[in-house]
Amino acid sequence: xxxxxxxxxxxxxxxxxxxxxxxxxxxxxxxxxxxxxxxxxxxxxxxxxxxxxxxxxxxxxxxxxxxxxxxxxxxxxxxxxxxxxxxxxxxxxxxxxxxxxxxxxxxxxxxxxxxxxxxxxxxxxxxxxxxxxxxxxxxxxxxxxxxxxxxxxxxxxxxxxxxxxxxxxxxxxxxxxxxxxxxxxxxxxxxxxxxxxxxxxxxxxxxxxxxxxxxxxxxxxxxxxxxxxxxxxxxxxxxxxxxxxxxxxxxxxxx
Length: 255
Hints:
11 helices; alpha/beta; 5-stranded mixed β-sheet; 255 residues
């Protein structure tokens, strides 16, 4: 764990090496990993709730209940249509998709870095998943790659202030950098291009930020099967699948 004195010393004397103490995270929502209203938690209970990749269900639901009446508004014309599309075709579904966080460098899924989405890609869902995934972390800086960073970063800190104190993160505004993956950036309006481009971000090298899409490509193979499962069976199955994906990724590092 880095002490505050150590971090200040690094910033003061080795600012050019800041990237060595930076964590890169990729965030995204996947609307293929849906789940129908099949069975219930009594017949299909969650075993080891919150022990692996999905966030703990009880605090997650409590958090969502507090923000159920909030509306997420997009000011980016490039993604306005996408926001509306994600709100459709949710009839008969318990889960409309999954929000996830993985390492932006190596595509390793974060522990407690997955959460079910009920109706589109809402900030309240993604906030909780992100905050859960970095609990206990102590890095100089976190660079976030998210295809709607231009919107999600708005009022980010005010939303954090309203969060349960047990989940608050200790980073300052200088410690979290919001970027947009390179492939998705062109779909945004011109005013988003320079401020959220990896090409102009110091210490990011040639990071493209699209690794989370590669991860979804692996897990989507189970979308048809898990769509018909009960809540507990589905959560356990997906935890196992995401764990296997991480094992494969680590096995292939350096090969």
